[in-house]
Amino acid sequence: MTQLILASSSPYRKELLQRLQLDFICINPDIDEAPKTDEPAQKLVTRLAEEKANRVSEDNPKSWIIGSDQCASFEGKLKGKPGTVEAAENQLRAFSGKEVCFYTSVCLLNREANFQTSESTQTLVRFRELTDKEISVYIETDNPIDCAGSFKAESLGISLFEAVESSDPTALIGLPLIKLSRLLRKADIL
């Protein structure tokens, strides 16, 4: 039987992958996720998804490894996980009434089979006008400190939006299942 590994410690990615009803384990890839100088968002997420998969495959060369990464681009600048309540408030305040583009990439890798392929997707989120009180209540309720863009789209965060445009709706949560399913079919796993 083929061993499938999700190169992630993200509970959100784990929960999404469980939807495909495949047996898998999770391993934290423990890589440096800092962007390179002037690295565009789409290149960053593709590079990081591939680095995560490659890192985990070093110790698991016969396994099929899934790596994924996501970041936001707002007014030409990368926006990641806020890390603190204050940073989340500042992000949501800046996003209020504006559009933010999220890039999500997924990589499927098997060293032994000499197989590696990646796909990326773009999601455009239009935020509605948000008051400071709405932002504070939202952050206190949903605690999105570990989420790119300071929201959980799978939870109460959806109430912050006017619209979402994407060809792969799960990408906004952190793992594009439509793209991943295509890669898994290509590898004869799904």
Overall description:
With 190 residues, the protein is an alpha/beta fold. Helix content is 31%, strand content 26%. Strands 1, 2, 3, 4, 5, 6 and 7 form a seven-stranded mixed β-sheet that branches. Helix 3 (85-95) packs across helix 4 (132-142). It is elongated and about 50 Å long.
Features:
31% helix; 7-stranded mixed beta sheet; 190 residues; elongated; alpha/beta
Please give the structural blueprint.
Elements: E1 4-6, H1 11-18, E2 25-26, H2 41-59, E3 64-74, E4 77-79, H3 85-95, E5 99-110, E6 115-127, H4 132-142, E7 161-165, H5 177-186
CATH architecture: Alpha-Beta Complex
- The proportion of residues in beta strands is 25-35%
Spans of at least 5 consecutive residues whose pLDDT stays below 50 are: none
Multimeric state: single chain
Percentage of residues in helical conformation:
25-40%
How many runs of DSSP E, i.e. beta strands?
7
Largest sheet: 7 strands, mixed
The helix tally amounts to: 5
Fold-level CATH name:
Maf protein
Spatial separation of the terminal alpha carbons: 13 Å
Gyration radius, rounded? 17 Å
